[in-house]
Design a protein that fits this description.
Structural class of chain B: alpha+beta
Largest sheet of chain A: 6 strands, mixed, barrel
Number of strands of chain B: 2
Shape of chain A: globular
Distance between the termini of chain A: 58 Å
Oligomer: heterodimer
Radius of gyration of chain B: 17 Å
Shape of chain B: elongated
Strand order of the largest sheet of chain B: 1-2
Number of helices of chain A: 28
Largest sheet of chain B: 2 strands, antiparallel
Helix content of chain B: 55-70%
Radius of gyration of chain A: 38 Å
């Protein structure tokens, strides 16, 4: 016989212990073991083992499985959980400092997550609030244009109208056009976004009707207003039956307000302030030549594929009209995916949500969550090691490890729930309002009515409880009671894991700080970048061609005005892309119309040729100035004198301008053209004010304006502020990044603070004895420093390397061309982090310096 | 009379427990069945049957001694109760009654 006696397969034995009802376990296990040794003698090891396994598997039957007859044991569970709760709350209170660090850290992270969740949901889930949303489709067609087949989100009116007439399964077809209209009410003019659609629009889409009846919209002379719009016009008066004027075909027409509807939620692709009858858009034209978006509502349970199949017959109808537009196929795009796919559907409804901010916010939230969770794991582990005696006693009394784990997780749940409440308050009271002002969105926290949010909160709570609580719970429940009471269990010696987490935290903090600093740096450079022209001291007044001459001559009398120039549209406030052709090369370019002096007046530098010359009659007809990019795009060797075809008219280049930014810096520079125009088409005057007098000038000009034209509001802007929106966005982003960095630093510093504090508490007696024996506070400090300095320096180094990669990626997506992360932000971030860490450790060391060794040593 | 009817394996186990008289527990029953009939029954089946018979009141059990091969675990000893004995008697009498009515000529006609 071999020395090692064969045993039954361990795993099978364990499996049996696991599943078997404890009441039956003894006899069953005894039997199978006895059988095993009997078979061992008769049949050999292998067969015995196999049979043993087989027996165990066969014993795995309902009557033997745990719990069936263990009912009496569970009666105490409620009391047990009550006890867990009580102990948990007592413990939180007893260890206030680390607990509050945990709660604050977690709640900050939760608040970040809530903002990210709300924003991401708002961006990604569009048009989901319509009750019939799953049956509504946007009608599309495929057509061949510019050498490729593309999907278009509109149909001709004629085809759209036929969809409803001809097909079974189609319940309703809604024609929908958006266009700007001018509404006049009591001498005031409002520019509104109007929807031209049929009255069934309100049957199909779930927009709440506040006053009136949408059936009335069948009449051409009735219109509907959005609630906010109606309030703007009528204040608190009852709007139904009121008359407003809308400019149709250049003439004012009276319309009666028949209905007021609630504003569309932010994530709606369909929005309108005014709803009007579609005939006003048609103006008697042939419906074959008009296009519109069409929404199709299908009958319940109808397969859209069938309807699409039927609709194909309309392709021939359209192509039979002998128009330029030939359809290849018709299709239906679900309402709910319409916005998401809008980059593939040309001229559809809705726009794709911007991905960059979504990703950025998701990253920030994840960062915060990781930081807070790691904090929690570290501190909870250290906290729990103070309770080893309790664990030992519980184990001796008969607690199983599983029960201890449940106990710790329960305590964890209490803490996480607390953090969740604080986090929600933080988010609702501070994070979300701040975020709204920065990002211009209007998200809010509606806990009671938002199912997705509730699901998110509950799953976040569970996730946090397990992610943060699992390791500490398993770690402390592993201790053996014998070792605990003998004092040989070296609690808190498992430093490697804790220190690893701390390092990771500081790496994250490092990355966020670098991102913040780099963003600030880039922002400053971005705003100070030259615009390519002189934007200072210039006031632009928008007016009409009629008032141009008279206002200009009146304004020039003002002593604050140094000079003026007229234009059709002013720099950075225009967007007029036109097709341009030189020889065989074709490209789109900006087209800006102004008087002859405008380019020079705005300070655009001339590279070649000359500016416009008013005295030359041809300059107002066929001369243009182009920018450098124009020359390079059209590959012109000698630009001056070259003929350019713009919209089938020929122009001659007389001068080349240095590149300037006609739009945001990110948009880059494309070919741009200046065309001189006679005064009769100009609609804006740019005044050059005396230095520092622009504000004064605006007020004076406003007075002048009101004297001349009291019925039209004065409209003016400073040239230096035309890009304010762009800069505000950038500053908002920078602010978010700085805020993230501060949060990350705060969280990791709190983590460090907690760890150092617990570390010192554990060694307090050591320190006291050392003090008594004459150690200086400095030498005691060195011990603690030594422990943490290595990981801090490691974190700074690793963080720097990662930050260069991550932050550059971020900067590319935000600024395009950017100053790469250099030594400056890295150094600054490193110093900042080390400084904060040093301060954190020092605060804790104060306790050591101020302690009275006698007191500490007397205590136990 | 439902409840007193027992299956074939149940009858066998009941008989074996009666035969073993004292010292009938899972493994000994299994071995006895193997020795006496040559049938190899899985231990899980034996346990299930014995539990069922105990529920029906034909057996009673108590925890007994342990042995080293069991790793110090006690065994559960089973004893035949009077109702168990009565059931065995009844089953036997039904069998014999039927057996005695067998026509000798019918059953030895192997050619068909």
């Amino acid at each position: 016989m071999s020395l090692k006696e064969p045993h039954p397969p361990k795993w099978a034995d364990r499996f049996l212990c696991w599943f078997c009802n404890p009441k039956l376990l003894e006899q069953i296990q005894g039997d199978v073991h006895e059988l095993f040794y009997w078979r061992l003698e008769e049949k050999g090891v292998r067969k015995a083992k196999r049979s043993f396994t087989w027996d165990v598997v066969r014993l795995f039957r309902w009557s033997n499985i745990k719990g069936k007859s263990g009912q009496t044991q569970k009666l105490n569970n409620v009391a047990m959980f009550k006890n867990y709760f009580k102990i948990g709350i007592r413990n939180l209170w007893k260890q206030r400092m680390p607990s509050s660090i945990n709660v604050i850290g977690l709640s900050l992270a939760i608040a970040c997550c809530l903002v990210a969740f709300k924003y991401i949901e708002y961006q990604l889930i569009r048009d989901a609030f319509h009750e019939k949303g799953d049956r509504i489709y946007l009608a599309t067609h495929e057509a061949f244009e510019e050498n490729e087949v593309a999907t278009y989100g509109y149909l001709s009116w004629e085809i759209g109208n036929r969809v409803k007439e001809n097909y079974s399964g189609v319940k309703e077809v809604i024609q929908f056009n958006n266009a700007g209209v001018e509404v006049k009410f009591q001498d005031k003019i409002f520019s509104e976004n109007s929807a031209f659609t049929n009255k069934a629009f309100f049957d199909v889409f779930s927009f709440d009707i506040i006053h009136g009846d949408h059936e009335m919209l069948a009449s051409k002379d009735k219109i509907a207003l959005a609630e906010e719009t109606s309030k703007r016009y009528f204040g608190d008066e009852y709007p139904i039956g009121k008359i407003v004027k809308v400019v149709v075909d250049g003439k004012d027409r009276d319309f009666e307000v028949a209905m007021v509807f609630a504003e569309a939620p932010n994530n709606s692709s369909l929005r309108a302030e005014v709803v009007m009858h579609p005939d006003w858009l048609r103006k008697g034209r042939d419906p074959k030549n008009l296009i519109s978006n069409f929404f199709v509502e299908l009958e319940e349970g109808v397969n859209p594929q069938e309807v699409i199949g039927q609709m194909q017959s309309l392709v021939e109808v359209q192509n039979g009209f002998n128009l330029d537009r030939k359809y290849n196929a018709l299709g239906l795009e679900p309402l709910t995916t319409m916005a998401k796919n809008s980059d593939q559907i040309i001229d559809g409804v809705g726009s794709t949500p911007p991905l960059a901010p979504v990703i950025l916010l998701a990253c920030i939230a994840t960062f915060m969550l990781i930081l807070a969770t790691f904090n929690y794991i570290n501190i909870a582990t250290a906290m729990a090691t103070k309770r080893v005696k309790e664990i030992g006693i519980r184990k001796v009394i008969g607690s199983k490890r599983g029960q201890l784990v449940v106990q710790f997780l329960t305590e964890n749940l209490i803490l996480c729930a607390l953090a969740m409440i604080v986090g929600c308050l933080l988010a609702a009271g501070f994070f979300i309002p701040k975020f709204n002002t920065i990002s211009g969105s209007t998200i809010n926290l509606d806990l009671l009515h938002h199912t997705n949010l509730q699901i998110f909160l509950v799953s976040l709570l569970l996730f946090l409880t397990f992610a943060s609580g699992a390791y500490p719970a398993f770690f402390v429940s592993k201790f053996k009671p014998v070792k605990i009471f003998r004092g040989s269990e070296k609690v808190g010696s498992k430093h490697r894991f804790t220190m690893g987490l701390l390092t990771f935290q500081f790496v994250l903090a490092m990355i966020t700080i670098v991102a913040g600093i780099a963003a600030v740096q880039n922002n400053i450079e971005y705003e100070n970048q030259s615009w390519g022209y002189n934007q200072n001291d210039k006031l632009v007044v928008n007016l009409s061609t009629d008032s141009f001459g008279s206002f200009r001559s009146e304004a020039m009398k003002n002593p604050n005005v140094l000079a003026s120039a007229g234009s059709y549209n002013s720099l950075n406030r225009h967007w007029d892309f036109r097709n341009m052709k030189v020889g065989a090369i074709e490209s789109d370019g900006q087209y800006l119309r102004s008087d002859a002096s405008y380019p020079q007046f705005m300070g655009l530098a001339l590279l070649q040729g000359r500016y416009f010359d008013e005295s030359k009659p041809g300059d107002l007809i066929s001369s243009i100035l182009v920018n450098e990019t124009f020359v390079s795009v059209f590959q012109l060797e000698d630009a001056i004198g070259t003929l350019v075809t713009i919209d089938s008219t020929n122009f001659q280049i007389v001068g080349v301008l240095k590149d300037y930014f006609y739009s945001s810096f990110q948009d880059g520079i494309e070919p741009a053209v200046f065309k001189a125009e006679p005064e009769s088409v100009l609609q804006a005057i740019t005044f050059l004010a005396q230095e520092g007098k622009t504000l004064e000038l605006r007020d004076q000009l406003e007075e002048t304006w009101e004297k001349l034209y009291s019925d039209v509001p004065f409209s003016a802007h400073f040239q230096s502020e035309v890009r304010e929106g762009e800069f505000t966005d950038m500053r908002g982003l920078t602010n978010i990044l700085i805020f993230t960095a501060s949060l990350a630093v705060l969280l990791s510093a709190m983590g460090l603070f907690g760890l150092v504090s617990l570390n010192i508490s554990a060694k307090f007696k050591d320190f006291s004895i050392k003090r008594v024996l004459g150690a200086s506070a400095m030498s005691l400090l060195k011990d603690v420093y030594k422990q943490f300095s290595f990981i801090l320096i490691l974190a700074v180094v690793v963080g720097s390397v990662l930050a260069i990669k991550v932050v550059n990626l971020l900067l590319v997506s935000v600024y395009g061309e950017h100053t790469p992360v250099s030594v400056v932000p890295l150094g600054l971030a490193g110093i900042l982090l080390l400084l904060i860490a040093a301060i954190t450790i020092n605060i804790q060391m104060r306790r050591v310096r101020l302690m009275n060794p006698a007191e500490t040593l007397r205590r136990d | 009379m439902k409840g007193t009817n027992i299956g074939e394996l149940e009858e066998l186990v009941l008989l074996v427990i009666g035969v073993l008289y004292e010292g009938a527990y899972g493994v000994s029953v299994l071995k006895e069945i193997k020795d006496q009939t040559g049938r190899e029954v899985n231990i899980s089946a034996i346990h299930a049957v014995m539990n069922r018979l105990e529920e029906k009141g034909f057996l009673r059990s108590e925890m007994g001694g342990s042995s080293s091969t069991r790793g110090g675990r006690r065994k559960r000893n089973y004893y035949l109760t009077s109702s168990g004995r009565a059931t065995l008697d009844q089953v036997r009498s039904v069998r014999e009654k039927l057996y005695n009515q067998l026509s000798p000529s019918a059953s030895y006609n192997f050619s068909k």
